[in-house]
Amino acid sequence: MSQLLSPAPALTVRQAASRIVARHVRELVRYEKGARTGNTEAIHQMRVQTRRLRAALELFAVVLRIDKHAGRARLRWLGRALGRVRDVDVIATLLEERHLPHLAGVEATRLEDLVAALKERRWRAHRKLKAVLARRRYARLKQALLDQAKRPRFRRSGDEDAMAARLLADRILREARRVSAHRGMTEREPEAAALHALRITIKGLRYALEFHAEAAGLAFEQERHLTRDLQDCLGGIHDHDLLLSWFGGAADAAATPVEAQLFAGAWQVLPERLAADRARLFRRFLRLRGRWRKRTEPAGTVAPLEEPRFVALEAAPVQLRLAPPQKTVASLRIVR
Of 93, 42, 25, 58, which is closest to residue 208 (Cα–Cα)? Predict the structure, then answer.
């Protein structure tokens, strides 16, 4: 059973939209200086805030009037510039810290050269990011977001005075249905593309759960932790899938000729280590998937996974549950 974090403030949709958007605008601006200097964590956090702001603006579009300079398309543009740096940080760190200490001889030297080449790519990506942050387009985006946070403008839709807890709970239900019905959650051996798409779907649910905690004063605490763990695990799988494809000869569109040459050729130990780590991450995913099913399906039965149905969530810390099916369905077992 999820636990109550704080007394529910009973915010309206208007109040919740103001609070959530303003908070994430402040966070985005707070990390800008660090992103300009190349700080790894600041770039990561600034990218996260672009994603959360996009999710918040989409969720509250029914009540908010958004300046054209602060729309989701502008935030996506900024997020891509941040992502080009962040993605290289993740891959280079994984290779350098996780695998380089366990290699020796020629293969270790080759990996050192590859990491150095990736850091050169990172330098170029950060130089482009600094240019993006210096552009008038970003200045307009930043100012429009700050204005939205300070003086939000609203539509007269009839929904602005409704309770935010209900809007957010409905969103959680829709996102949870999408997760349960996803191929990555239903197939025994989902392909890499399905797992990557599942991670994006889970991210939408995680944001809805976090917005619920921010605005309604209630949180599905175990569900939030579970979606976070699923997202992190699937992110690790995706990173390994990318590297395995590159070392296997698949083209990396961003690779320089030097990088392409270093990825190619006879790697013996490193691909095996990457494959073993990927297998461990996949086994962890199966365990987490099993936990998800236990928390969303009635005890003793399994609802048809292609048509998951959830009971209505009240504005209280309750567990996500699939409604019992109309007919008996044999229990399914997850191969661990």
Answer: 58
User: What tokens does 253 get?
Assistant: 């569109």
25: closest CA among 126, 132, 206, 152?
A: 152
Strand pairing partners for 322? 310
pLDDT tens for 172-213 read 999 999 999 999 999 999 999 999 999 999 999 999 999 988
Q: At what angle do helices 40-59 and 164-181 cross, to 10 degrees?
A: 110
- Which residue do the tokens 């800008």 mark? 32
Answer whether 175's CB lies under 8 Å from 201's CB: yes
pTM assigned to the model: 0.83
Q: Give the residue carrying structure tokens 């962040």.
A: 86
Instruction: Output the furthest CA–CA distance in the chain (Å, rounded).
Output: 69
Neighbours of 40 (CB within 10 A): 16
Pair 231, 197: CB distance under 8 Å: no
Which is nearest to 60 in space by CA: 142, 143, 149? 149
Query: At 238, phi and psi to the nearest 5?
Result: -65, -45
User: CATH homologous superfamily for 11-155?
Assistant: CHAD domain (1.40.20.10)
Q: How many CB atoms lie within 10 A of CB 263?
A: 21
Per-domain residue ranges for the chain? 11-155
